[in-house]
Amino acid sequence: MGDMATIRNIVILTGAGISAESGLRTFRAEDGLWEDHPVEEVATPQGFARDPELVQRFYDERRTGVLAALPNPAHDALARLDRDWDGGLLIVTQNIDDLHERAGASRVLHMHGEALSVWCTACDARHRWEGSLLDGPACPACGAVSMRPDIVWFGEMPYRMEEIFAALADADLFVSIGTSGAVYPAAGFVQQAASHGAHTIELNLERSQGSAFFDESRLGLASELVPAWVAEVLGR
Ligand code: NAD
Prior knowledge:
alpha/beta; 6-stranded parallel beta sheet; 9 strands; binds nicotinamide-adenine-dinucleotide
């Protein structure tokens, strides 16, 4: 990897692949979530308007799955990095699970929302939510029956983009883990970071769609690649 002695700021992008070994299905695999449900049905505002019950049921299932899953060695390793790295660090995750946090990481940003959060479109409040939204519970803040999953759907703006682009502009090292590179704007982060001079690495089961943009590609399981990479960084 680049010259570790000069690395100060690290940005990490994680995707569904880092949680696959925790038993959470990725979206694009053969047995992926999109196989059961076309993306337009469950992950667009139009799909929600057309069939709110189907969409609430889909995210009720995601919530249950997330609560049952446990962090794996890849999440644990990033939590160790977060604890021991004195330089800048931002873990930008596309995942809606909370496995980074449960492993102990705190410098985490959920650009696509969170399974265990719900959003009231009447009063704009967000609440931690572990139960169902299917029977239309009232918002604890305003009482309206207007709560939806706090998930960024296709066609909606990802959260905290300014913060992400500022971190990418300052990054000396950009590492992409377990993401197919199919969903923008996240798929463009590697070029953003590289254009500001960052060294770029992908850790993934197979080459991602943007593989050619990375300085290094390491292929394998996140549970093996991530702990090995973190050990390299911390052992500099
Ligand atoms: P994706 O399904 O498109 O790609 C996953 C990538 O991970 C693939 O390239 C695959 O080869 C790789 N992978 C699979 N198992 C792996 C392993 N054990 N180790 C390393 N790599 C592995 O997922 P994505 O790129 O995150 O897709 C984008 C969308 O999917 C995001 O919007 C995200 O919010 C959503 N998503 C989130 C979750 C979650 O929160 N756990 C689950 C599914 C999908």
